[in-house]
From TrEMBL:
Protein origin, superkingdom: Eukaryota
Name of the protein in question: Uncharacterized protein
Keywords: Calcium, GTPase activation, Metal-binding, Zinc, Zinc-finger
Domain Arf-GAP: 52-180
Sequence ranges assigned to domain C2 in this UniProt record: 189-307
Entry's Gene Ontology molecular function annotations: GTPase activator activity; phospholipid binding; zinc ion binding
Record InterPro entries: ARF_GAP_AGD11/12/13, ARFGAP/RecO, ArfGAP_dom, ArfGAP_dom_sf, C2_dom, C2_domain_sf
SMART domains: ArfGap, C2
Length: 365
C-alpha cells in the first residue's frame, strides 16, 4: 500500500516497500521511514502524555514559532486539518474559508480530539506543510508579511489553500475542491501518471519512462566452474529482458555497461539474475535479486523536471530484512538527472554482490 501525504512534503512511505522521500527544503527534515514509524508508535503508546502537551511540544519546534502564512512570531492558532500554526490575523482568514478547508483551533483554549492531534503531528509542522502548499509561488506573487493588510493576507491564503495555486502543477487536483487534501492524497499518483504518460505502441500499457541500468561491477561472485566463473547479468522487467556481456574467468568482474528498459505504468519489481556462461551445458545461476523501483520513480515524479533543482537527495530505498540491499540506497538529483546507486547482495547463493546505478529518464512531453 502506498500512501501519499502532501502535507508531509512529498514524504511517501509504504509498509510493503519501506522507502521514503526526503523533504526538499532542508536536510534537517530528512525524516525516514523508521523515524515516522517510531513516531507513529510513540503517538499511539504515549497515552500518559496529555494531548495538549503534545500540541504544545509541536508548537515549540523552531519552524512553528512563526505563522505559516505571514511569518508573524508566536502563533497561537492551528489549522488542525491542514497541519499549520498561524497567527490571529491569518486565523481569521482561515475561518472564512470554512472548516471543510481549514479547521481552526486554539492551541491553548480549545479541546483537541486525539485524531486532530495525531493529524497535526503527522504533518510535522509549518515547514513541512509549506514545502507542499508553497512549493511553487510564481514570480509576481509574494507572501504577505506580518504587517500585510487583510486583503493581501486573504488573497494569499485563499490562493494557497482554497485554490492550491502554489502546489507543483503536477500535484494539483482540479476536481472536487471541497476536500482538497483528501483529493491530493488519493489522486497524487494518478495525476503524476496521467500527466506524463504516453501509449505504448503495442498497447500493453502506458509507458511512463525509461530506466537506464548501469551494471558497474560484481564482487566475490560464486564459483561455478573449476576455479572461477564467466559471469553475466540478466535483468527482467515485465516482459522485457536485457543482459550484459560475459566476463571471462572473473569472480570480481567489471562491466560498466549500460542497459535500457522501458517502464510501464504498472511496473513491478526489476529482477536480476547472474549466470555463469557455460559453452557445453546450461548456464549455472549465481544468484538473483529483486529491485524495488518505486522509490526512484516516485521521487522522480514528485520532483518533476530534475534540471530545475540543484544536486540533492530526494528519496531513499531503505535496507530491510526482506530486500537485497547491503545499505540504504539514496535517490539523488545529480547534474539534472535522477540517479540511484546501490549495492545488492545476491540472494539464494553462497556469495556475491553487485554494484548498480539506476537512472530515471521520463517520457518527453
Ligand atoms: Zn499570520
Amino acid at each position: 500500500m502506498v500512501s501519499f501525504s502532501p502535507a508531509r512534503t512529498g514524504f511517501v512511505f509504504t509498509s510493503a516497500h519501506s522507502f521514503c522521500l526526503v523533504l526538499r527544503d532542508t536536510q534537517s527534515f530528512a525524516f525516514f521511514y523508521e523515524l515516522q514509524f517510531e513516531r507513529l508508535l510513540a503517538s499511539k503508546v504515549a497515552m500518559s502524555v496529555s494531548g495538549k502537551r503534545r500540541v504544545k511540544d509541536l508548537l515549540l519546534q523552531k519552524d512553528n514559532r512563526f505563522c505559516a502564512d505571514c511569518n508573524a512570531p508566536d502563533p497561537k492558532w492551528a489549522s488542525a486539518n491542514i497541519g499549520v500554526f498561524v497567527c490571529l490575523k491569518c486565523c481569521g482568514v482561515h475561518r472564512s474559508l470554512g472548516s471543510h478547508i481549514s479547521k481552526i483551533l486554539s492551541v491553548t483554549l480549545d479541546e483537541w480530539s486525539n485524531e486532530e492531534i495525531d493529524a497535526m503531528i503527522e504533518v510535522g509542522g509549518n515547514s513541512s506543510a509549506n514545502s507542499i502548499y508553497e512549493a511553487f509561488i510564481p514570480p509576481g506573487c509574494t507572501k504577505p508579511g506580518p504587517d500585510a493588510s487583510h486583503e493581501q493576507r486573504a488573497k494569499f491564503i485563499r490562493l494557497k489553500y482554497e485554490q492550491q495555486e502554489f502546489l507543483k502543477p503536477s500535484l494539483r487536483i482540479m476536481s472536487d475542491k471541497t476536500n482538497p487534501r483528501a483529493n491530493i492524497n488519493k489522486g497524487l499518483m494518478d495525476n503524476f501518471l496521467s500527466s506524463s504518460c504516453s501509449q505504448n505502441q503495442d498497447g500493453k500499457g502506458r509507458s511512463i519512462g525509461k530506466l537506464k541500468v548501469k551494471v558497474i561491477k560484481g564482487t566475490d561472485l560464486a564459483i561455478r566452474d573449476m576455479m572461477t566463473s564467466d559471469p553475466y547479468v540478466i535483468f527482467t522487467l515485465g516482459q522485457q529482458t536485457v543482459q550484459t556481456t560475459v566476463v571471462k574467468s572473473n569472480l570480481n568482474p567489471v562491466w560498466n555497461e549500460e542497459l535500457m528498459l522501458s517502464v510501464n505504468q504498472k511496473f513491478g519489481l526489476l529482477n536480476l539474475k547472474v549466470f555463469d556462461y557455460d559453452l557445453f551445458s546450461c548456464d549455472d545461476i549465481m544468484g538473483e535479486a529483486d529491485i524495488d523501483l518505486q522509490p526512484l520513480i516516485t521521487s522522480a515524479m514528485t520532483y518533476g523536471d530534475p534540471s530545475m533543482f540543484e544536486n540533492m537527495q530526494i528519496g531513499k530505498w531503505l535496507k530491510s530484512h526482506d530486500n537485497a540491499l547491503i545499505d540504504d540506497s539514496p535517490v539523488n538529483i545529480v547534474d539534472g538527472k535522477v540517479q540511484q546507486e546501490m549495492t545488492i547482495k545476491l540472494q539464494n547463493v553462497e556469495s556475491g554482490e553487485l554494484d548498480l546505478a539506476l537512472e530515471w529518464i521520463p517520457i518527453e512531453s
